[in-house]
């Protein structure tokens, strides 16, 4: 599903951020990406979302070389990746429904289909009935659930989360992780960047560890 | 263990899906139309929501547009005035008082020999007096004169091919130097002058319009740039969940359209109100000159053109900003 093939990333101002990173995530696999701050976790995720392009090597998503993708293909690649952020990145002036509906509206779904899928997605994250609320009145855990609902509403084959529990207490974090496991069980590939070692250790999944841009454990 | 009832292969239902995926074709067409309608009205909604700043922008643009279109309508009115006056190259030769009619006739026939001349008409002193009496309204006063003060006049109409101003000037100079001629003039020279002034004014209006149009373009661009800045998060998030540039551009282009359109409408009202204020005194003035002059307002086509051009300027203005600024708006 997701394959890194000798990927290196060099920023002119920061030097090598990733060095010869290679790994392969199978379809339906769930993995954690760990490492100290500045180890290159964010950069690696940016390559998957085609926010950046690698300097050397290849990133293959579903067989497609992301480095070769033309700019106008990038939006369609991003529709295959559900992105989840530490700061949720919700639109504060839109309701929960509108936030979750955004990827569907962008993909050009009709009104009925949007409505049906948004409800299904909110149901999955346990927020059905809060469609009309604004993000600001929700707790941190609920806001992250909205973020997750938005990421999965378009049924992407891959979910990429960047420190999804970074702002949450341990109980809520465990709940969120459990939610990810449920998506994994229906065949979604999941990659979660996190430095919450104790939480990761409790869960029995593959761990990719970055150290100064190099993959030291996989 | 398995039921073997369904021997026929399962027929796959046709799926009308494009690469954007999701929904059937008709549903998608509706969705596309809805997207546009939504962008159209949500951008209008945002303009209304920020009433004060939108109003200021629109008024500034409307003043610029009304300056350009106001000058245009002013020139159109002057042209209408000048259009009533037929231009011709007719030259009038006023002969010296001592020239006899016989000599004048001889002089006239000598002019007829000139290949550049189309027509020569001699007006005798008596004929001139007659005309003067009947047209000028000074009939009684003229009768009181002891002798006819009017000179013999020869009206010379050069060939049409003699459009060239210089050739006409040479001809006129020739006549001026003749011993018989006291005074020679091209009758309608002032009309020509007026027309050249009009031409200058027309060009001026075009240049002014271009300048003000560029102003409108950049003011719109700056307004959209500010909007883009305030909605930065929205743009970044939309990009992250797979929005195409078209999807992101759309609401801003519609904002530009509305700003341009409303500025055009406001400009139309500004100019029309000014014309209404001026209409009465101008037509009074025109009555004094016994002229059938009527103040011209924006016609239907001109109104459409005004609204169309302002809307297009708005759209183009926002497009420029989107083209140059959106690339810099990268998600982090």
Question: How would you sum up this structure, described in words?
Answer:
The complex is a heterodimer of chains A (218) and B (332). The radius of gyration of chain A is 17 Å and the shape is globular. Chain A has two domains: 1-80 and 156-218, 3-Layer(aba) Sandwich (Rossmann fold); 92-155, no CATH class. Chain A starts with a strand and ends with a strand. In chain A, strand 4 and strand 5 form a beta hairpin. The model of chain A has no long low-confidence stretch (mean pLDDT 91). Chain A has 218 residues and is of the alpha/beta class. In chain A, helix 3 (96-107) crosses helix 4 (111-124), helix 3 runs parallel beside helix 5 (140-152) and helix 4 (111-124) crosses helix 5 (140-152). Helix content of chain A is 34%, strand content 27%. A six-stranded mixed β-sheet of chain A has the order 6-7-8-3-9-10, sandwiched between helices. With 332 residues, chain B is α+β, with helices and mostly antiparallel strands. Chain B has two domains: 39-84 and 193-328, no CATH class; 91-187, Alpha-Beta Plaits (2-Layer Sandwich), CATH 3.30.70. In chain B, 67% of the residues lie in helices and 7% in strands. Chain B contains ten helices and four strands; from the N terminus they run H-H-E-H-E-H-H-E-H-E-H-H-H-H. Chain B has helices at residues 25-49, 51-83, 101-112, 125-136, 139-143, 165-177, 189-230, 232-240, 245-288, 300-325, and strands at residues 91-95, 117-123, 153-158, 181-186. A four-stranded antiparallel β-sheet of chain B has the order 2-3-1-4. The two termini of chain B are 56 Å apart. The interface between A and B is medium-sized, with 25 and 28 residues.
